[in-house]
Design a protein that fits this description.
The protein is α/β, with parallel strands linked by helices. It is built from 21 helices and eight strands. The strands form three sheets. The chain has a four-stranded mixed sheet, covered by helices on one side. A two-stranded antiparallel ribbon has the order 1-4. Strands 2-3 form a two-stranded antiparallel ribbon. Strand 6 (432-440), helix 18 and strand 7 (460-470) form a beta-alpha-beta unit. Helix 2 packs antiparallel against helix 10 and helix 9 packs across helix 10.
């Protein structure tokens, strides 16, 4: 009993400390993505609070952190810009019409995500091949790394430049101190949260030695913000009065909402799969879609920019011991407390400490084993992995995953299309037998048809499918075409070892197949183009 209480106490402590660590790491990320989207920092911070809180309670993956992300921000920036231009054209009563259109788009985005969850479309994330997953992980690691390099820039007189001299050495030194603490502290004291300790130590160093380094506060002000301090989120009642509710508005926001919903679902479910592998547990993809959709609707109604799962913060949370829902709840509530009460203290946290933590996330996220095995895996898989990684960095996650799945599907279809074989033999009575081996589907029908010598075959021909499987209607059509060709030549053909489903489809197309198909007790049992059963 005492051991159980002790273990539960330790778990709660880990959840709380990991939640606080994530909350600190969320601040610069949410602010940076707000600047990318062209909105006020509080819009991103409110999104991180509300989306993170709702998905932590109702989401399908305990321990996963959600908030404002760069993948969504890069889509939102053009939406906000075009929305502002539309506002100027119609002399809108408010200056930030782009922001109002953003809120409305995020509401529609959430509706799309709820529909996806209700229709159980989340299960299709299981169709993402492993090379695509590895490419996604590596690409995001590179994106996170490149985004942190921007922290080595400073603003002087409105001009952004790379750090040099003592400024650069100080920044790099604090980053290395942070990373050193995260590497070596767990080897000395495992019960002390390494990431949170690193933030406290590095902040103490900068304050004690009065180092002139970039902090959370200076980062916000350099980006054009006024600071971290704000109030509680306010219901956006003007959404229903300022924006005209007509077909023109719908046609403007619909494409953006669809893209944002797709990007959000893909990034969230791929992050869910990654955490499943790390924690050796299984999340619920459809429940996550529903929670993400509801969270985005709520955050838009209360002035947030919307969001989805954040792979960097999720890995920080899991590695810090946050495996349950409590850590995400603590992170969201702590972030709200920072905004309301602790802004003066949080603004003093050095950016170097948070950058060091994110560098450790990069090291932990990147699949280093790929470098060792890439020359050992099939070339097609290696090409998919590299392509997905490159597209994730150069363009966006949704495009990269889509291209990776298409490439993997084409490779799979082509390889299986080449597996169709036909062993030929002649019976003592002169009947020629074709024993078909391999899958018969849309990709292999042409190869299947080429196996038969219709004109040169004897009067009696038998096609045996004992070692083949007809996978779709294209296969059925190919069989029907071969039968017709033999009949036009005046030859008798019989079909053996077709499944009940195949026989049913052929008999439905033409009654003649009742005499062509031989019924055998050992006929296989499988369905053609059947709806698979998915166990959630």
């Amino acid at each position: 009993m005492f051991e159980l209480i002790k273990k539960r106490t330790e778990n709660v402590k880990n959840e709380i400390t990991s939640g606080l660590t994530v909350a600190l790491a969320l601040v610069p990320e949410a602010v940076a993505f707000s600047f990318v989207a062209g909105v006020d920092p509080l819009v991103g911070l409110y999104a991180a609070c509300m989306v993170g809180f709702i998905t932590s309670i109702f989401g399908g993956r305990p321990g996963m952190i959600s908030g404002a992300t760069g993948a969504l921000a890069v889509v939102m920036v053009s939406l906000v810009k075009e929305g502002n231009e539309m506002g100027l054209a119609m002399a809108a009563p408010v200056a930030d019409m782009g922001l109002q259109y953003l809120f409305l788009t995020v509401i529609l985005m959430g509706i799309f995500q709820i529909i996806a969850g209700a229709c159980k479309l989340g299960k299709f994330i299981r169709l993402v091949p492993h090379p695509v997953m590895l490419g996604f992980v590596n690409g995001l690691a590179i994106v996170i790394f490149l985004s942190q390099l921007n922290m080595f820039k400073s603003v002087e007189g409105g001009v952004t430049r790379w750090m040099q001299g003592p400024e650069l050495f100080t920044m790099a030194g604090l980053v290395l101190v942070t990373m050193g603490i995260m590497v070596f502290l767990p080897k000395i004291m495992q019960k002390v949260p390494a990431a949170l300790t690193a933030i406290v130590v590095v902040t103490g160093i900068t304050l004690y030695f009065d180092l002139n380094v970039a902090t959370v506060g200076s980062f916000i002000r350099d980006g054009g913000g006024d600071g971290l301090k704000g109030g509680l989120p306010v219901f956006q009642s003007q959404l229903f009065t300022i924006i005209p509710w007509n077909l023109e508005t719908l046609s403007f926001i619909l494409p953006y909402a669809f893209i944002l919903a797709g990007v959000g679902i893909i990034e969230s479910l791929l992050t869910l799969n990654l955490l499943d592998e790390i924690t050796e547990t299984r999340g619920n993809s459809n429940r996550e879609c529903l929670a993400q959709g509801a969270a985005n609707i709520v955050t838009a109604l209360f002035g947030g920019m919307g969001g989805c799962a954040m792979i960097g913060q999720s890995i920080i949370n899991v590695n810090s011991g946050g495996r349950g829902r409590l850590s995400g709840i603590i992170a969201a509530l702590a972030l709200l407390c920072f905004i309301l009460f602790g802004s003066a203290y949080i603004e003093q946290v050095p950016i170097a400490a948070l950058t060091g933590i994110m560098f450790m996330v990069v090291i932990g996220t990147f699949a280093w084993s790929c470098l060792r095995i890439i020359h050992k895996i099939p070339k097609a898989d290696a090409l998919v992995l590299i392509t997905v990684s490159g597209l994730t960095v150069a363009y966006d996650l949704a495009l990269a995953v889509f291209v990776g799945i298409i490439m993997s599907a084409l490779v799979f279809s082509w390889e299986n299309a080449l597996r169709i074989r036909a062993r030929k033999r002649v019976k003592p009575d002169g009947t020629k037998v074709y024993e078909i081996w391999g899958p018969l589907f849309f990709g292999s029908t042409q190869m299947f048809v080429s196996k038969f010598d219709v004109k040169g075959d004897p009067e009696n021909v038998e096609i045996d499918f004992i070692e083949s499987r007809v996978s779709d209607y294209s296969g059925i059509d190919a069989i029907s075409g071969i039968v017709d060709r033999y009949e036009r030549e005046g030859k008798r053909i019989t079909l053996k070892h077709l499944s009940t489903d195949c026989k049913k489809l052929l008999n439905k197309s033409d009654k003649k197949y009742k005499t062509i198909i031989l019924e055998k007790i050992d006929d296989p049992r499988y369905h053609v183009v059947a709806e698979p059963t998915i166990f959630e």
